[in-house]
Write a structure and sequence with these properties.
The protein has four helices and 23 strands. It is mainly beta. It starts with 8 loop residues before the first helix and ends with a strand.
């Protein structure tokens, strides 16, 4: 997907985000079976403190930041001129969409700093087309492009495939329908090129649907795994936690305890998912640097690593205050209860402070931010915060 002669960053934000909701690559299947989203968006290159897929700057600059829950928090920055932030909210879970679906979506944003000629307002978008690697964009979106003098025609893009999602050098650009390497993983990529030459790549990882339902799981695992690092790892039978992977390895004896122990012994690990063997493939252990949401599945056993809190420590409760920064994990909460966030922080020795955000403050759901430091409190009715004493 290529955009040329771009002069309007506002429309770049609205149009490029349409590519981010591609979540069906059945056309990539090499043989029987369909493809399903295996993890959330892949990180192709890493910037400290920022989860982005690519940040290849041309003279105009530009980057996109993606939250692991699948929502989009983006910053486009033209150095010295402007920076604007936008939030996308979708009426449906974008991970459950199929090719051809149209999902109502809204975008809101604000100018963080601006100098002429880059200031402006973000436009609302309704009806984002979900498309596969060899399918054209929707007629509605094409009409928007054709009716806008600053855009030329958007060309379709094909797909990526690769063996190792953590090693970009092993990835190979392929056309849709061509055989791709084993293991059965596929990447879908969309390229957006700006006038100055900067490229942004949005990439999703998929696996075959028949790899996600290997049959009955073994008997219940132990409730938790203690470690010598003062950490405890829970065990969640029939639960998959997709995304946030920083490492994975085969488990020849198919023992989920080996995966739990590996997470308990690695300070980077906040969660794990053990995938049962199926179809001649060995069991796999996926270690995660975040805590993705739990999804019921017979494929897996998952768990969360918590650090033993220091003795005699308590957490303050600061209603109407935000503590910004120093997050080491964040996640949606099932109910609007700040005590859930407080309890999670209290149970994890790494957590020195927390912030709970109310529904609608930073997304439709309440959210918990656990922090490895104690930033100063700032008055804001969006939040309830606290810090260890």
């Amino acid at each position: 997907m290529r955009i040329r002669s771009v002069a309007d960053w506002v429309r770049i934000a609205a149009l490029s985000a349409a590519a981010l909701v591609e979540l069906s690559v059945a056309a990539l299947a090499d043989g029987p079976g369909t493809w399903v989203l295996d993890s959330n968006i892949l990180v192709l290159n890493k910037t400290t403190g920022v989860t982005i897929l690519s940040d290849t700057h041309g003279p105009e600059g530009g980057s996109v930041r993606i939250k692991l829950d699948g929502s989009v928090l983006g910053n486009y920055c033209d150095p010295g001129f402007e920076e604007m932030q936008f939030d996308w909210q979708f009426a449906r879970d974008i991970h459950q969409l199929s090719e051809g679906d149209v999902v109502p979506a809204t975008v809101s944003g604000k100018i963080l700093r601006s100098q002429a000629p880059c200031n402006g307002d973000l436009a609302a978008v309704s009806g984002i087309w979900v498309w596969s690697g060899d399918a054209p964009i929707s007629d509605d979106l094409q009409a928007q492009v054709d009716g806008d003098r600053i855009f030329t025609k958007i060309d379709q893009q094909h797909a990526w495939a690769g063996k190792d999602p953590h090693n970009v050098a092993d990835q190979v650009f392929v056309r849709v329908g061509e055989p791709h390497p084993e293991p059965p993983l596929a990447y879908f990529g969309v390229e957006i090129s700006f006038r100055g030459g900067g490229d942004l790549w949005y990439v999703y990882m998929y696996r075959r649907a028949d790899q996600t339902n290997p049959g009955p799981a073994p008997g219940p695992a132990a409730p938790s795994t203690p470690s010598g690092l003062g950490a405890t790892v829970s065990s969640e039978l029939h639960v998959d936690r997709r995304g946030g992977d920083y490492d994975h390895f085969p488990v020849p004896n198919a023992d989920p305890q080996a995966c739990s122990t590996a997470c308990a012994g690695d300070a980077r690990c906040l969660a794990y998912t053990f995938v049962l063997p199926t179809g001649g493939q060995p069991a796999l252990c996926w270690l995660k640097s975040s805590i993705p949401p739990a999804t019921p599945s017979d494929c897996c056993i998952s768990g969360i690593r918590t650090q033993t809190p220091p003795p005699s420590s308590t957490l303050t409760i600061e209603d109407g205050f935000d503590r910004k920064g120093s997050d080491y994990t964040q996640y949606d909460l099932p109910t609007s209860d700040p005590n859930l966030c407080l309890q999670d922080c209290s149970a994890d020795g790494r957590c020195l402070s927390y912030t709970y955000t109310r529904p609608g403050a930073r997304g439709p759901l309440p959210r918990c931010y656990l922090k490895s430091a104690a930033p100063p409190p700032v008055a804001d009715q969006c939040c309830t915060s606290g810090a260890r004493q």
